[in-house]
Specification:
Keywords: Cell membrane, Cytoplasmic vesicle, Glycoprotein, Golgi apparatus, Membrane, Phosphoprotein, Transmembrane, Transmembrane helix, Transport. Belongs to the MIP/aquaporin (TC 1.A.8) family. One of its GO terms (molecular function) is water channel activity. This protein has about 350 residues and is mostly helical. Helices cover about 60% and strands about 0% of the residues. It has one domain: Up-down Bundle (Glycerol uptake facilitator protein).
């Protein structure tokens, strides 16, 4: 595998030999690479890129439709925590297995941001993915709203802070819930693992179900800004929507912890990075396609570690400041069957 570290020793050795070589090498590092610009345009025009973006839209639509549908308060059969947790978890596991080879099956802006911070997807692809996920969530919530009787719709399972939970406590809970999900995704799809990891789709589904088993009592369990944004747009309830957005930027630290040496790439994030994908060689279950070696050194070099560390510290400071400013504040009515 071609990584950014493969060429670093040779470059240092070559430029350090003579002053003239250092002078010749310095301008080349400061100039933007024309090849990188061409690759960005090539990616945007490719059919594979369009398919990947549409796959994210469709997968998020289906996820929101089935997930929120399981939480609707039917009079004859009110939902329970186990039912909702299994519905969200099984929906994610099914969709990861179905579209993982097309787009990587992020289905979550938090996952896309983590891959972007870890240099696993290009900035262009991340922007299109997030837009597709948000539009898919709104569309799925709108479809569910239209086909559900008015007396059952309720708040359409909008995420809210429940059981006298303060805003700071809700943010902290969402931070941990989203962190364990992104951690599971990166760890279960690491192609450097030699052990039998089983099915990444199943483990990711279990991670989502696990988060709901606990998080429903606090915030209704978001772990996904698109999941919170979709129903909030349809019913016009944004009172606690910001709680689900706060932990998103911190998830990039997972890639900093797990990605290993600079240039390491993760199959779940790179399934559709190339417009001309090539099948990967023998590897663990769940391995997806790799980008061609000709593009490996373009856009995929990891950012400096100090950038990742500073971003993590900024996220932690923002969360601590939020908790301090909202300490003791009781948010919204207690948890009820209609709001999960």
């Amino acid at each position: 595998m071609h990584t950014a570290t493969d060429c670093t020793p040779a470059l240092l050795q070559d430029t350090a030999s003579t002053p003239s070589r250092r002078a010749e090498a310095a301008p080349s590092r400061s100039l933007p690479s024309p090849e990188a610009s061409l690759s960005t345009m090539w990616e945007l025009r490719s059919v594979t890129f369009t398919r990947a973006v549409f796959a994210e839209f469709l997968a998020t639509l289906i996820f929101i439709f089935f997930g929120l549908g399981s939480a609707l308060p039917w009079p004859t059969s009110p939902p329970n925590v186990l039912q909702i947790s299994l519905a969200f978890g099984l929906a994610i596991a099914t969709l990861v297995q179905a579209v993982g080879h097309v787009s990587g099956a992020h289905i979550n802006p938090a996952v896309t941001v983590a891959c972007l911070v870890g240099s696993q997807v290009s900035f262009l692809r991340a922007i299109f993915y997030v837009v597709a996920q948000v539009l898919g969530a709104v569309t799925g919530a709108a479809l569910l709203h239209q086909i559900t009787p008015p007396h059952v719709r309720g708040s359409l399972a909008v995420n809210r802070v429940h059981n006298d939970t303060t805003t700071g406590q809700a943010v902290t809970m969402e931070l941990f819930l989203t962190f364990q999900l992104v951690l599971c995704i990166f760890a279960s799809t690491d192609d450097r693992r030699n052990d039998n990891v089983g099915s990444p789709a199943l483990s990711i589904g279990f991670s989502v179900a696990l988060g709901h088993l606990l998080g429903i009592y606090y915030t209704g369990c978001s772990m996904n800004p698109a999941r919170s944004f979709g129903p909030a747009v349809i019913v016009g309830d944004f009172d606690s929507h910001w709680v689900s957005k706060t932990p998103v930027s911190s998830q990039g630290e997972v890639s900093f912890v797990l990605r290993g040496k600079p240039g390491t790439r993760w199959p779940v994030c790179l399934a559709a990075q190339s417009a001309a994908p090539q099948p990967s060689g023998p590897g663990p279950k769940g391995s997806f396609m790799r980008i061609p070696s000709s593009l490996s050194a373009i856009r995929m070099n990891s950012p400096p570690r100090w950038v990742l560390l500073l971003s993590g510290l900024a996220c932690i400071s923002a969360t601590a400041f939020t908790c301090k400013c909202t300490a003791g504040k009781v948010c919204l009515p207690p948890f009820g069957e209609a709001h999960v």
